[in-house]
Amino acid sequence: MPELVVISGKGGTGKTSMVASLAVLARQAVLADCDVDAADLHLVLEPQIRRRQTFTGGNKARIKPGHCTACGKCEELCRFEAVYFDGPGNGQAPRTFRIDPAACDGCGVCVRFCADNAIEFGPAVDGEWFVSDTRCGPMVHAQLRPGAGNSGKLVSIVRSQAQQIARERGGGLILIDGSPGIGCPVIASITGASRVLAVTEPTLSGEHDLDRVFLLVRHFGIPVTVCVNKCNLNAEIAQRIERKAQAAGAAILPPIPYDSAVTDAQRKGMAVVELGDSPAARAIRQGWSALCQQIS
Amino acid sequence: MRIAIASGKGGTGKTTVATNLAWLASQNGLAAAYLDCDTEEPNGHLFLRPAIDQRREIVRMIPQVDPARCTLCGQCGEICQYSAIVCLEQKVLVFPELCHSCGGCALVCPAGAITETPRALGVVETGRCGGLGFVQGRLNIGEVSSPPLIRAVRQAAPPADLLLYDAPPGTACPMIETVRGADYVVLVTEPTPFGLHDLRLAWQVIKSLQMECGVVVNRALVGETEARQFCEQARIPILAEIPDILAIAEAYSEGKLAIEAVPGLQRIFARLLLDVTSAAGTNALPEAARRRLRSIADLRADPPGCGRPAPGAPSCLLALRGNPRAPNRARAISSPDP
Predict the structure, then answer these.
(1) Per the CB < 8 Å rule, is A260 touching B9?
(2) CATH number of the domain that B100 lies in?
(3) At what angle do helices B14-27 and B265-279 cross, to 10 degrees?
(4) Is A267–B192 a contact, with Cβ atoms under 8 angstroms apart?
């Protein structure tokens, strides 16, 4: 089962618009939105949710104010700056400790070493994931609770659900929309994938961030294809990026021109290739034929 | 005074807002520093071109098990919430990439068999661009967890009246780690369905943290009201609208500061700086700096395309496309302002 993951390094280069168009052109690929903390693919593909499940990323610690003797052991041991000395007072101490849930990493060290057993430890609901139908095929997507951690774990769930659906269907392409950056969720979405498609833009930032994407895919040994979006914004940098991509051993897709059809399509809840003929749609169709050969 | 510049969606203009604000502040007598907390893809240096004078490696601690002392009791594996240390029948296995460096395993080990050894996570670089302080973090390739590095970036802040944190995109732990050190958050969005959807998510984070925030609409289009409607409903102030003009996108592509490439933008950024610093609820702005910023904010002429686009000022898309088919934008640019 080939897995194609679309990432970019820099945000806002056009990953999701690209994935939406590829989803239309692929006709019935299994889709996975692994940008779990700012998912947007559903805005275009309008999934009908068939199944939903809560996601528990891990546990969180909470101090029971009535039991805290303010000994300060939790604050001393916490490595996540999550313990504050501003909890309400009780009979034993005028002020108690409090754990900031946004900062708590769920390591459980404070729970284990609290001499007064004053700290509760329980699962936190960190989001939800969905299996849906779309006009372009089945889709697995998720919503990390805003502010929650453990995005990599949720990405892994989304990916493995997509793989399971693909297996049940007897194979076929899995098309994955990734996150910006090169950290936790990106690594979780690309490890073991068949190919990465890096969508970039001809700006110094786009170029700089793509360099780091090249290092990342080399680190994990994944073949990479590059597509320069909004290519006429700066023709010189666009050419330089393609030269660098070639030197890095990447395959190169036809560049996509800056085209208002892309935003128009987004506003209409459509992929740009569904909106009719446009320069961007033409470039993406050409790119798709090239990609098909690279994946097979 | 610490201001974080964040967004849900990537590529909306966080770095543009943060670098231009920082530069404008430092040019007008404020002791300011720019901190690039997007340690996965730091880009602020491309625009500020700092002279880096210190580079410090940041490590995180990973357990190392001494098999001669280990009694295979299994307590390390029990406390570890991340499956980073596993006790088998014959030996203990450590998976460094899963480890969150909480130190729990070393603390519980009754045999003293676990020591913590450093593993490189990334670097924090500090320097200056003229009068402006500069700090950035750079995560090593293949490392998963940026929050400890972001913490190190915040801790490396030089003494200053104004610190600007440039946040990574998203709404997960790296964004939280950046904004939770701030007094006020500026959320940058663009008036597209993706931009507004992710603005809503970012706003939910700020609300859950009980922090104050305001919105900057980047690539603002005349006649586009969705962002304004959302902000009115959610009662978030719109601090500034940066027009969608080609010159800004071109300057960005070449690593130039927008306020230098399009001098009229100084007015927008000066007003933004004044608003943000007063919204952050402090009077940290020295009187001389406030006077200078006020004069820039009030006296300079409107930049082309700012809110009321001058005839002939090319919108980014129209100019690049050279094709009048762009319906939304064409209408937006040619219709008279109501």
Answers:
(1) no
(2) 3.30.70.20
(3) 90
(4) yes
Burial group, residue A100, by CB count within 10 angstroms (0-12, 13-18, 19+): middle
Q: What are phi and psi of B178, to 5 degrees?
A: -75, -50
Smallest CA–CA separation between B32 and chain A, in Å? 23
Return the H-helix or E-strand segment holding B60: strand B51-65
Residues of A in contact with B225 (CB under 8 A): none
A184 and A245 assigned to the same domain: yes
Domain closes at, from A77, A98, A117: A117
- Does residue A91 register a pLDDT over 70? yes
> Is A191 in the same domain as A138?
yes
User: Is B317 or A184 the better-scoring residue by pLDDT?
Assistant: A184
User: Is residue B250 pLDDT above 70, yes or no?
Assistant: yes
Verify that A75 and A52 share a domain, yes or no.
no
Instruction: Give domain status of residue B36, yes or no.
Output: yes
Range of the domain at A106: 65-117
A156 touches chain B (CB under 8 A): no
Residue A75 belongs to a domain: yes
Please check whether residue B142 lies inside any domain of the structure: yes
Global confidence as pTM: 0.90
Domain tally, chain A:
2
A242 in a structural domain: yes
Which residue on chain A is closest to B143 by alpha carbon?
A: A183
**Which residues between 228 and 287 in chain A have a beta carbon less than 8 angstroms from any beta carbon of chain B?**
230, 232-234, 237, 257-260, 263-264, 266-267, 269, 279
Q: Is A131 helix (H, G, I), strand (E, B) or coil?
A: strand
Q: Hey, is the C-beta of A27 within 8 angstroms of any chain B C-beta?
A: no
The string of pLDDT tens digits covering residues A117-137 is: 999 999 999 999 999 999 999
Element (H, E) at B186: strand B184-189
Domain assignment of residue A122, yes or no: no
Q: Which of B146, B209, B325 sits opposite A102 (nearest CB)?
A: B209
- Evaluate whether ipTM surpasses 0.95: no
In chain B, how many domains are there? 1
Q: What average pLDDT does chain B have? A: 88
Q: Which of B82, B3, B21 is nearest to B289 (CA)?
A: B21
CA distances from A92 to A62, A98, B1 (A): 18, 15, 37
